[in-house]
Amino acid sequence: MSRPAGREPRRPTRWWRRRSLRTRLTVIAATAIAVSVFVGFQVASELMDWELRDTAENQLRADSRVLATNAQRAGLTQVELPPYPGSGRLVRVILPDGATRTPSGQPALPPVSEQAERVAQGASADLMESNDSDEGHLVYTLRAGDGAVQVAQVADDSPINQFGFGMLLIGLLCVAGGALVGRTVARTGLAPIDRLTAAAVRVAHTRELDADIPDEGGGEIRRLIRSINDMLAALRDSRRAQRLLAEDAAHELKTPLTSLRLNVELLIRLDRRGTLDSALPAESRTRLLNDVGAQVAELSTLAAELTDLARGDASDENTELLDLADVVVAAATRARSRVPDIEVTLDVTSVWVSGRPAALQRAVLNLIDNAGKWSPADQPVQVRLRAEGTSAVLEVDDAGPGIDAADVPRVFDRFYRAAGARALPGSGLGLSIVQRVVDAHGGRVTVARSERSGALLRVDLPAAAPPDPFPRLTPGEDTAAR
Length: 482
Fold this sequence. Notes:
- The protein is of the alpha+beta class.
- It has 10 helices and 12 strands.
- A 5-stranded antiparallel sheet has the order 2-1-5-4-3, with helices on both faces. A 5-stranded mixed sheet has the order 7-9-10-12-11.
């Protein structure tokens, strides 16, 4: 069964997760060495036990052959069995009637087994057996004459025990050494991370983003340090952009706010004196109120553009498959409703793109507004949309004076306004917003001179496969908004 959601992990898991990486590496190293020592001890013990048993069995066979030779020469009942010396091998003679003979003073051996009796009766030539009694005898039975002889040896576990004790001491030393080595390796290996952590903490506390973290170490550590330095560089650029935006916004807001404040203060002062009607003729009052309205509209436009620009690529609008021709037509309609004097001629074909409709419409509207400022009253703004290879190409063309070559590199900068445009309404943010929207959609915006000697702004966006089926506009079906 799976653990219920939200249930706390088990205590050992919680303890492990709370430990530092250095402690984890130390524990892992010590555990790995302990397991290796244990496995090595088990294998070595088995090999040593097998070797000792094999040696003991060979010795018992050799002693049994000597005793069997003597028994065949002297007879089973007459073969000489020297007194037990107090240690060493044990012997026993099995007579044909099943009786046994043992040396004097020798400890008792286990009773003769049925298999040993069968050897004495001639059913088999020899037998190696061991019993599981406390003393653990290893007994070899060999057929001799009409009976058999047995040579036995008490199993001696002392070499194994001594070997195990030695391995235990070695294992403890290895575990302690492994923990020490693991701690040292962890400290050395994590030293760059410690310095990286200290640098990150220092940046977080001081808010200083100018100092890069030294590039040291190798492999993953170096990639991590470079990634953090790249992040700090991005944060520096973001902070610099925010500061420039705030400074430029304050500068741009200062002029209309000052003018608006002076006009409003003049109206308030005259109204308090009761001389508003006498001091300001109707024509001057109307002109002043129109100025106030224009200044408020300029501030509202500037605030909206600043908000749109400050949001960057962050947007709640989803990307969808759309016909860019619909976006262009909607933008042209909005431009005509905002500025009744502007004349827009559309020559669009259906081209599908993947994008955010509102953002794209805002970009097209800014292009048309910018062109409308420069186009003479009798010359319309021409907007063309077509498919060109794998791109959707949008061109906005005016018949104005065009953009000077010196102004072209900065035409998309925030708040930049050419010398000839400073007398015209606007904030200098429109084309900057266009470039941001086009960049966010993977496209490109460029500026050139049109055939009418005005400015030609061209937008290239990646085209998308249209849904099937969809209505297409034929090249002869142009839409015009006038």
